[in-house]
Amino acid sequence: MTTTIECPLFRPTLRIGDRGQDVKEMQKRLNQRLASIYTYSQSVEVDGIFGQKTEVAVKYLQCLGFLKVTGITDGATWNFICDGAKSLPVLAFPGLPASGDAIAQVKLVQKVLYDCGFYQGVINQIDGKEMAKAVIAFQKHHRLTADGVIGVNTWNTLIKLDSHVDGCQCNYYGCGC
Length: 177
Description:
This protein is mainly α. The protein has 2 domains: 21-86, no CATH class; 89-150, Muramoyl-pentapeptide Carboxypeptidase, domain 1 (Orthogonal Bundle), CATH 1.10.101.10. The chain is 49% helix and 2% strand.
C-alpha cells in the first residue's frame, strides 16, 4: 500500500543552493516518504537549506522510485514524494512501446528483474515478451496479481526489494558497514 503524504499545492522546483520555507516543506515530506519505504537512509535535517545532504537524499529517493536521478526536486520527484508508487506510470508488458520517462523506467525495471533472476533478456528498454514473462514471474513470486502489468502494488514491491534498496544505498550513501 502506498502512503499519501499531504503536500502543498505549490511545489516549486528545488535544487542545491535553494533556501527557505519551500525547502523546509520538501525536506519534511522527503523524510516522511523515505520512512514510508522503510529504508536505512539518513533523515535530512529540516532546516530550509538545500545542501549536499538534501541533494543526496533526493537522489536516493529518485533512485528508489525509478525516476531520473538529478538531485533536483522537479514535478516527478514531488509527485513521488507526495503519492509514492501511485505517481508512477502503469507499464503493461508486452504493450505499446514506452515513451518519455517510461523508457528509462523500463530499462531500470529490466535491470532490477535481471539482478533478481527474473529477466534473462537484454537490458535495452524494449518491453517485449521476455519482459512480460519476467514481470509475471516476479508477480507470482511475490504473490501479486500476475498480469504482466506494473501498477501500484508491483511498483511498491519493486521499490522495496532489498537488492534495489541496497543498490541505491551504495550509489548515494556508500557501500559497506
